[in-house]
Design a protein that fits this description.
The structure is a single chain. The chain has 272 residues and is α+β, with helices and mostly antiparallel strands. The chain has a single domain (3-267), classed as Glutamine Phosphoribosylpyrophosphate, subunit 1, domain 1 (4-Layer Sandwich), CATH 3.60.20. It contains eight helices and 14 strands. The protein has helices at 14-18, 25-28, 70-78, 126-130, 134-138, 145-158, 163-177, 249-252; strands at 3-13, 45-49, 58-62, 80-88, 105-107, 110-117, 182-188, 193-197, 203-207, 211-215, 226-227, 232-236, 241-245, 266-267. A seven-stranded antiparallel beta sheet has the order 3-2-4-1-10-9-11. Strand 5 and strand 6 form a beta hairpin. Helix 6 packs across helix 7. The radius of gyration is 17 Å and the shape is globular. The two termini are 32 Å apart. Mean pLDDT is 89; it is low at 252-272. It comes from Streptomyces minutiscleroticus. Residues 252-265 have a biased composition (Low complexity). Keywords: Glutamine amidotransferase, Hydrolase. Its EC number is 3.5.1.118.
Length: 272
Amino acid sequence: MCRHIAYLGPDEPLGRLLVDPPHGLFRQSWAPRRQRHGTVNADGFGVGWYAEGDPVPGRYRRSGPIWGDLSFADLARVVRSGALLGAVRDATAPGADGEAAAAPFAAGPWLFSHNGAVTGWPRSLAPLAHGLPPDELLSMEARNDSALVWALALNRLRGGDEEAQALADTVLEVAAAAPGSRLNLLLTNGETIAATAWGDTLWYLAEPGRRTVVASEPYDDDPHWRQVPDRTLLAASRTDVLLTPLKDPREAYGPGTPSAPGAPGRPEEPPS
């Protein structure tokens, strides 16, 4: 389910990154090339972007398919940004949350998306939800699995965790509570990108010092796209990409482990 993309680089019209590429997010809404689960991402879409001088991103989200929104076509043509996160949604289960269920979710400087599904939802994550402060549960934007995964990651961010560490620990915690879940998470603060490959595809395109793109799948046939191995944490800026192996918590820490820290990262050599 779902496709998403994050970008850091020179200011570009949103459409140049999301609509114009031959296999961009716009086309991935009905014809993804590498999606393993689901075929059509028409249950909502969204994009969040950063304006110069403002650390809090703006968002545009809708409950319908991206191809049916003429207002988005105009917005994508004229709005420019050097950092964005976009997503198209294939819902795991029916719901009444509308555009509130569409990524990106947001809080403070952060934009977040989840590509995947939590097995046994909602019962499987009830113990983890009980550990969240009541005000954070009550302020969740939607009542789906992605919104709760975001609440778990956001609780760590607000507690002082770095972005990559917050994602790593959230994935391991959720995977321990709901084995078999697909947990490709994507997070940006406008200056860095953190992401996990856990059960679905993740790729990145890096031009050190100029731009970094992290996406569910390549939006064109540029030979410099690199696939992120499954069970991996990615941490990136405009200049560096680091990959960290993530182990299934049952393998690394034994059955029943509620959560576990991520491993230290290793730098990934950018393509020449």
